[in-house]
Design a protein that fits this description.
- The chain has 4 domains: about 1-115, 3-Layer(aba) Sandwich (Rossmann fold), CATH 3.40.50.12160; about 130-245, Transcription Regulator spoIIAA; about 250-365, Transcription Regulator spoIIAA (2-Layer Sandwich); about 365-430, Beta Barrel (OB fold (Dihydrolipoamide Acetyltransferase, E2P)), CATH 2.40.50.
- The protein is about 35% helix and about 20% strand.
- It has 15 helices and 20 strands.
- The protein has helices at about 1-15, 40-55, 70-75, 75-80, 95-105, 120-125, 155, 165-180, 205-215, 235-240, 260-265, 270-285, 300-315, 340-365, 430; strands at about 30-35, 65-70, 85-90, 110-115, 135-140, 140-145, 160-165, 185, 195-200, 200-205, 220-225, 250, 290, 290-295, 320-325, 370-380, 385-390, 395-400, 405-415, 420-425.
- A 5-stranded mixed β-barrel has the order 16-17-18-20-19.
- Helix 9 packs parallel to helix 10 and helix 13 runs parallel beside helix 14.
- It is globular, with a radius of gyration of 23 Å.
- The two termini are about 40 Å apart.
- The structure holds iron/sulfur cluster (SF4).
- Iron/sulfur cluster binds near residues 145, 147, 155, 189 and 227.
- Iron/sulfur cluster binds near residues 147, 149, 155 and 190.
Amino acid sequence: MNEYDSNRISDLVQKIGYKKTESLESADCYILNTCHIREKATEKVYHDIGRLKKKYRNKKKPIVLITGCVAQAENDEMLKREKYIDAVVGPQSYHNIPEILKGIVKKKTKVNSTEFDVIEKFDKLNTLENSESKVSSYITIQEGCDKFCNFCVVPYTRGTEYSRSLKEIIYEAKSLVSNGTKEITLLGQNVNAYNFKHSKKSFRLSDLIRELDKIKNLKRIRYTTSHPNDMSPDLIECYKDIKKLMPFLHLPVQSGSNNILKKMNRKYTREYYLSIVNKIREVSKNIEFSSDFIIGYPGETEKDFLDTIDLIKKVNFINSYSFIYNRRPGTPAASLDSIKNDEQKKRLIIIQNLLQEIQINKNKNSVGKFKEVLVENKLKNQTKYFGRTQELTPVIFDANKEDVGKVIYVEIKKYNRNTLFGSKITSKKEAAA
Ligand code: SF4
């Protein structure tokens, strides 16, 4: 989502005359768009500013804006602690950046813009063409979250759930496709809770996917990140008849233990999660799942941990993420006693080894097979091309310039832990031969 936001910030400031630069040494303005999910996010911002100060020691100071969730969470504190920062701008206020920049240039005052003005933000962004021209692009369709998992800062930094208008999303999708986009990933903190109400009608994620399916030159549709409780029957049904909807779903479970799921306030059980996975597999038998896992959550016993291992084995997750639990100030879980760090680390290694083993087996099984790959770009300084399979696995292969933006068949010849390697084959017939 930050990548999408950064691109939109770039669109906004280009309107008032700023241009992107690759050179950190000669910028007039430096906008650091931050994420608060990972550990030590705030300290990383101060380190970055420290590096910037060194670069500009004998030069005119650039305007420095901190945007995103760290700005939202730290707020005035940041302006007080680091005088080099000119403004903090929350994720729901970045539509104000052009005015903020003009104000700083004119009045040289510090600015705190951290209101939750999500309606005004998208009203403003909707009037501005999305200039992205990548083969695979993002569109934010939903922001915020009402779920309040006990470990998570999102409801406090991004606010409550908000869904953009279906019409505006389709407009943005069409404009991206006319710029060359072939794959769209719909984004939201709780993307499958998408619910746009208009004239007494309610439009859900399934309605949006069905509308996107009608866009002629769009080849692939994905969405992330989903909550298991919002995998409604209408959305599951989409996997049955919408070919453009990729057979890959990132569906974070966080833990395989009912005891921990309850402590996390996830509001589902492992049995419910497995029932959703099975329902989706009934309509899309080759679908693959990925997930996020929080390891060593406060109160996690050996038995809870083994339940997570058991769930991983049952679902066979690919392309997944696992982290040691890390407390976030201001969240309900922050006041709980952590389990021993040594134990957390030990469990993380076991989980990561298991996830890696599953991934390597899947990749190994792909050797000799023909995979449908969307060609995204040529690798820098190399002759090879980069793309992804339907299941989002990265592939590096021999192909031609004309293949960029096309879905081609690649014969998989080699693999490593994360990536497949192969060569383009010219036709489906060749694949069948
Ligand atoms: S559903 Fe996701 S975004 Fe919402 S509170 Fe839980 S972890 Fe955070």
